[in-house]
Amino acid sequence: MTIKLLVIGKTDASPLEKLIEEYKKRIGFYAKIDIKIIVDLKNVKNVSQQEQKSKEGALLLKEVAENDILVLLDERGKEYTSVEFAQYIQKVLNTGVKQCVFAIGGAYGFSSEVYQRANHSCALSKMTFSHQMVRLFFVEQLYRAFTILNNEPYHHQ
């Protein structure tokens, strides 16, 4: 299975980028992972939040195939412990799907079209984090999930 992480806008913090790349490399021992950056929209000063979400949503949905599982990283999504998230990943692996897409929305979240297409949503926390930090937190939790599934000593209970 391929795991694809879709993100709106590139990160400009090189220390975060280095950590993200490190976890991406580690995840590569368990599954193929691809991080796809959807370029920020230009000239959004005169665009409503709704219109911006809609345009970003259309770009995001272009990256999702019909048979993909789409999971939104959304503050209103289901909260998991690390072990529960690992179990969710195992459930997805068991479906035999070729690709599971996790998406991080733009500054205003997801459009209604993206919510309608999504198979699931999960929250990393009830707190709000910058989109750059969410990327790092997610890839670390994904790596942690694979180590839990493989009974490796990374996660302690």
TrEMBL record:
It catalyses: pseudouridine(1915) in 23S rRNA + S-adenosyl-L-methionine = N(3)-methylpseudouridine(1915) in 23S rRNA + S-adenosyl-L-homocysteine + H(+). Its EC number is 2.1.1.177. CDD domains: RlmH-like (cd18081). It is found in: Cytoplasm. InterPro entries: Alpha/beta_knot_MTases, RlmH-like, tRNA_m1G_MTases_N. Specifically methylates the pseudouridine at position 1915 (m3Psi1915) in 23S rRNA. Homodimer. This is Ribosomal RNA large subunit methyltransferase H. It comes from Capnocytophaga gingivalis. The gene is rlmH.
